Amino acid sequence: DLSLDNCRVIWDEKSRSHYADLIGESGSKNTNTSGLTEIVSGQDTAATGYLRNKTTTQLTTAFKPIIEASLEKVGATKYWTTVMNSYNKFSPQKINPDLTGYVTERALQGIFLQIAIEEKNIRHDPVARVTDILKKVFTN
Questions:
Q1: Most exposed: 63, 75, 120, 138, by fewest CB within 10 Å?
Q2: For each of the chain's 140 residues, which pLDDT tens digit applies?
Q3: What global pTM score does this model have?
Q4: Distance between CA atoms of residues 108 and 96, nearest Å
Q5: Residues 6 or more apart from 19 whose CB is under 8 A from it?
Q6: DSSP structure class, residue 93
């Protein structure tokens, strides 16, 4: 069925897989045993922090053109910069006047928030350890 909703689901599954691969590739490069030890024995979101540090640049590069095209398509960028520059003159809490940058930053924050939630779940709930590797790594 090629309905719009089904196409979105198919695209979302393919894009999620692509970005998951990108996170995995970037996150695993240059990982040494001390880094792995810190992840496994670290805080509830140690792996998430590690992935954030290792993959944010690559994910930003991958996401930005897609987000920019979407925002331009609907005309969302037309007034954002002017409004945010004015807002930033008076507000103690600054907002990125580059809408594409702002949306990309927020999207990545959301992704890493969801990864952190899942990581906490895996660390604390044995039922969430659904693969053999997770069972092996997080079982004492």
A1: 75
A2: 333 444 344 345 445 555 556 555 655 555 656 667 777 777 888 888 988 988 899 999 988 998 898 888 888 888 899 999 999 999 999 999 999 999 999 999 998 999 899 888 888 887 777 777 666 666 65
A3: 0.68
A4: 15
A5: 59, 62, 111
A6: S
Could you tell me the two tokens for 69?
């095209």
Specify the length of the chain in residues. Answer: 140
How far from 59 is each of 13, 32, 85, CA to CA, in Å? Answer: 17, 22, 26
What is the residue-wise DSSP string for 51-87? HHHHHHHHHHHHHHHHHHHHHHHHTTTTTHHHHHHHH
Residue with tokens 């996401």: 63
Residue with token string 């999207």: 107
Q: At what angle do helices 4-28 and 46-74 cross, to 10 degrees?
A: 140
